[in-house]
Amino acid sequence: MIVKTKDDIIGGKGDTALTGGKARTLRFLLRDDGVGFTLSDITIEPGSDKVMWYKNHIEANYVIEGEGTVEELASGEVHPLRPGTLYVLDKHDRHRFRAATRMRMICVFTPALVGGETHDEDGAYPLL
User: Fold this and answer.
1) Is it true that the peptide bond before 126 is cis, omega within 30 degrees of 0?
2) Are 60 and 105 in contact (CB under 8 A)?
3) Nearest to 109 by CA among 32, 29, 45
4) Backbone angles phi, psi at 32, to 5 degrees
5) How far from 31 is each of 97, 99, 105, CA to CA, in Å?
6) Buried (b) or exposed (e) across 48-72, using 16+ Cβ within 10 A?
7) Cα angle 28, 34, 118; round to 5
8) Fold category of 25-110 in CATH
9) Which residue among 18, 26, 109, 126 is least crowded, i.e. fewest CB within 10 A of its CB?
10) CA 110 to chain centre
11) What is the pLDDT of residue 123?
12) In whole angstroms, what is the distance from residue 94 CA to residue 35 CA?
């Protein structure tokens, strides 16, 4: 059984600043935990506006706080995000995320992340 608290994550391998300090992710489960996916609690500051693409990972996001939008770059379709909304990047979708207010989401990545990954020059998490 794996049991962790936020205090276990803060300041450690799973505590990562993203998008120039406009987001912070606390990664509760990593590859070394052996469960095959990463579970993160991410906080995004208002005004964050980022184009992203995960060529090596599938990501599911569940909004628990705040409001924003996610845009599918292939179609131009924009989806509103608010508490209770789930969106899944199931086809390695290029997308643009915008936070109108401070947001908090629970995110799941597969395959699991190693720990401190950030986006590379192509906008993708590397597969380590």
Assistant:
1) no
2) no
3) 29
4) -65, -20
5) 26, 28, 20
6) bebebbbebbbbbbebeebbbbbbb
7) 50
8) Jelly Rolls (2.60.120)
9) 126
10) 11
11) 56
12) 26
Q: What is the pLDDT of residues 20-47, one digit of tens each?
A: 778 899 999 999 999 999 999 999 999 9
Whole-number Å distance between alpha carbons of 56 and 24: 21
pTM of the shown model? 0.89
101 secondary structure, DSSP code: S
CA-angle at 53, arms to 20 and 123, nearest 5°? 45
Q: What is the pLDDT of residue 48?
A: 92
Tokens coding 119 = 């986006």
**pLDDT in the model for residue 117:** 72
